[in-house]
Write a structure and sequence with these properties.
Chain lengths: 293, 424
């Protein structure tokens, strides 16, 4: 059993998600009675392998979820994959995987290129570190879900504006439902990101008091981009709320949610590739040393 | 066993004659009672819809299905039409082609609107009337059950029934449902009282719409329609206010000028607070200024837009035909195989009975010679005899079933009759 569990690698679940994505894409060209079962089968297998991989790391390598950038990205990918599986089972005619699985695979790829070094831990910082990580995780997943809904809104609106009947096997949710999801996720991501940033400040204060930091790295690139992300998400939520009573409010919300994902992706790329002292330790000048985005 | 079909559809029978030939449910039951008297021992099912009247007859070896001419004459008598008028327009099929035709009909492949689902319930109803009239027998029951199974397979395994092809259904399912998640909290406004409005409202009601307002230039007509459709009538002068409150508008007036010019809509738009609006302008000439469709949050569809979507769906349905036809062919072959196999039953029965009789005689002789055998031992020996007979019968039965797949196994049946001296 241990040999089996230790043999599960990123490739295992990434390949399963890849096959599920290929099945989703095949909706556009082939109709098949077994595709749904194959798709759900591969997605479930991927999700289980993914969970076992994280579980094995937690049990044997003391790498708890959110304890390193690598684990953080993988947990975010797992949450999105679970979200995809739930939607696919409850709405089998909606090609939600075409939009969700690429984001899942991007997060897995981001994990592959990020550091597996755990963030420095001490009893005093462990709680605030976990809170900081969980809020940031919730904000990121929420941004991703909102952007997926926003993209689907724009595609559905384009189809309705061109007065085209829906494609076979490619039935999108209604604009009303998609607008509701984008609105909610914009608000949730703004609050979660703000809470994540605030808990990061508390964490730094605790680190400073415990002597883990000499100074709070306010000008660290990761701190700056996290701050920028929080400001953007709050502004986006406010803009979306203001536009809600205008006839094009839903379109504005969809666009804002897509821009939010672009801001988050830039922020992650900046974190993965840029120098940082975020997460503790001396300034690290190369890739693969990023902390919780 | 034989099958016969005589019938006409919208393709072969002009509507003037179809109207005379059509049967109501009561008339069909009455006709079947007459059929039972005129053709005793035969089975019959009468399928009568807006677009077709077909009579399916079946008979056994002893009493074959009536000839086509007899069926034409029977239908003509039932409806008081001259048989000579019907002769040239009614099509005729026999045996396997009857089965194939019924399966095509039940699956909607022979319908005016390809793949339309209502025909399944009409086929079910025809069969039920025949059962009540005691003209449905084992052959027609098997055939109609297989037809319904085929229709179900075509509906689930092909996309034939998935694409909507009527303007009201496309308007609601493909466009209005693309904008709104639910309709029970939406205000529907009917402008005008055209037939298409009532039909569209039927789909909207099925989707959950509850709050419906009808605006018409003639107040009495609006009141009448509102009472029939369980809606609220409103004066035509309130159109602008109702436009501001509506989420979905179905417009079907016969007005020769625009009912809602851009300026009128702009005034209503200001009070809408950004809520999206779906407008189904089914009138010709159009009731809504086409520029209203360019306003943000407005989804305006004219009858031409919806007709184009219907046509695209129709083309997609046609693309499903090869798959649907393959299912019909598969089910036809299966049914005919079963039917041919069923025709071997009397010979098999006689063969079994002969062997059983011989076995019983031998057992009796054996038990007389061995009087000390107890009941358990006798039962064991009897079971061994039965197993032996069943094993000997198995190969010829398998050969008969296999030969039945391609047609009635007359050669094998003759051979069995001669080899085992089976008398009718």
């Amino acid at each position: 059993m241990a040999a089996f569990l230790s043999g599960i690698s990123i490739v295992c679940f990434a390949a399963s998600y890849g096959v599920a994505l290929a099945c989703e894409a095949s909706r556009l060209v082939i109709r098949s009675g077994v595709r749904g079962a194959v798709m759900v089968g591969f997605a479930t297998a991927g999700l289980m392998a993914h969970a076992l991989f994280l579980g094995w790391r937690a049990a044997n390598e003391a790498a708890l979820p959110l304890s390193s950038p690598f684990d953080w990205y993988l947990l975010a990918a797992w949450l999105l994959a679970a979200f995809y599986l739930y939607l696919t089972i409850t709405n089998p005619r909606t090609p939600v995987g075409l939009f969700t699985l690429p984001v899942v695979l991007l997060l897995v790829a981001a994990a592959q290129f990020s550091s597996r070094e755990p963030f420095p831990r001490s009893p005093a910082t462990q709680v605030w570190g976990a809170i900081h990580g969980v809020f940031n995780l919730a904000a990121s997943v929420s941004v991703a879900i909102g952007a997926i809904a926003g993209l689907m809104w724009l595609i559905q609106a384009g189809r309705l504006a061109r007065k085209q009947a829906p494609l076979q096997g490619f039935r999108m949710p209604s604009l009303e439902r998609l607008a509701h999801v984008t609105g909610r996720t914009l608000a949730i991501s703004a609050w979660m990101a703000a809470a994540g940033f605030a808990s990061g400040i508390v964490l730094n204060a605790v680190n400073l008091r415990c002597g883990l930091l000499e100074t709070v790295p306010w000008t660290d690139p990761v701190v700056l981009r996290m701050g920028a992300l929080v400001v953007w998400l709050i502004a986006a939520d406010a803009l979306a709320a203001a536009a809600r009573r205008r006839p094009d409010g839903a379109r504005t919300g969809a666009r804002l949610s897509l821009v939010s994902l672009a801001v988050l992706a830039t922020s992650i790329a900046w974190g993965v590739l840029g120098p940082t002292r975020h997460g503790g330790g001396p300034l690290q000048p190369t890739a693969g040393t990023e902390a919780a985005p | 066993m034989s099958l016969a079909l005589v019938g006409g559809t919208h393709r072969t029978v002009p509507i003037s004659l179809r109207e005379k030939l059509a049967f109501s449910a009561d008339q069909a039951a009455h006709a079947l009672a007459r059929f039972r008297e005129r053709f005793p021992g035969r089975e019959g099912v009468l399928l009568s819809t807006c677009n077709r009247v077909e009579f399916y007859a079946a008979g056994s070896t002893d009493a074959a299905a009536p000839a086509h001419e007899q069926l034409v004459s029977f239908l003509a008598d039932c409806r008081g039409i001259d048989a000579a008028t019907l002769e040239p327009v009614l099509s005729r099929e026999r045996d396997e082609n009857v089965v194939r035709h019924l399966f095509n009909v039940a699956s909607g492949l022979d319908s005016m609107v390809l793949g339309e689902p209502q025909i399944v319930s009409q086929v079910k109803q025809a069969w039920a009337i025949a059962e009540d009239s005691r003209t449905a027998g084992p052959l027609t029951t098997g055939m109609f059950q297989a037809a319904l199974r085929t229709a179900k397979r075509v509906a689930t395994e092909t996309g034939l029934g998935r694409e909507r092809v009527s303007i009201p259904s496309v308007a609601v399912a493909d466009f209005a449902s693309g904008v709104f998640e639910r309709f029970d909290d939406k205000r529907v406004l009917l402008v005008g009282a055209g037939k298409m409005a009532a039909e569209t409202l039927r789909y909207l009601r099925a989707a959950g719409a509850r709050d419906v307002v009808i605006v018409n230039r003639t107040a009495a007509r609006a009141d009448d329609l509102a009472a029939r459709l369980e809606a609220r009538p409103a004066s035509f002068s309130e159109l602008e206010r109702e436009l501001a409150a509506a989420d979905l508008v179905v417009s079907t007036t016969g007005a020769s000028e625009q009912v809602v010019p851009l300026e009128v809509f702009m005034r209503a738009e200001a009070a809408r607070q950004g809520r999206p609006l779906v407008v189904l302008d089914l009138a010709v000439p159009r009731d809504f200024d086409p520029r209203i469709g360019d306003r943000p949050g407005v989804w305006l569809y004219s009858v031409d837009d919806l007709a184009a979507a219907c046509e695209a769906n129709r083309r997609r349905r046609l693309g499903e035909m090869p798959l649907a036809t393959a299912i019909v062919e598969e089910e036809t072959s299966r049914f005919m195989g079963d039917m041919h196999h069923r025709s071997t039953a009397p010979v098999i029965e006689r063969l079994r009975a002969g062997w059983s009789e011989t076995g019983e005689a031998e057992l009796e002789r054996l038990f007389r010679r061995l009087p000390t055998l107890d009941a358990a031992a006798r039962a064991e020996i009897r079971q061994a005899f039965e197993r032996y007979a069943a094993k000997l019968l198995h190969p010829p039965l398998v050969s008969l079933r296999s030969a039945s797949r391609t047609g009635p196994p007359h050669g094998l049946l003759d051979a069995l009759r001669r080899l085992f001296d089976l008398k009718d």
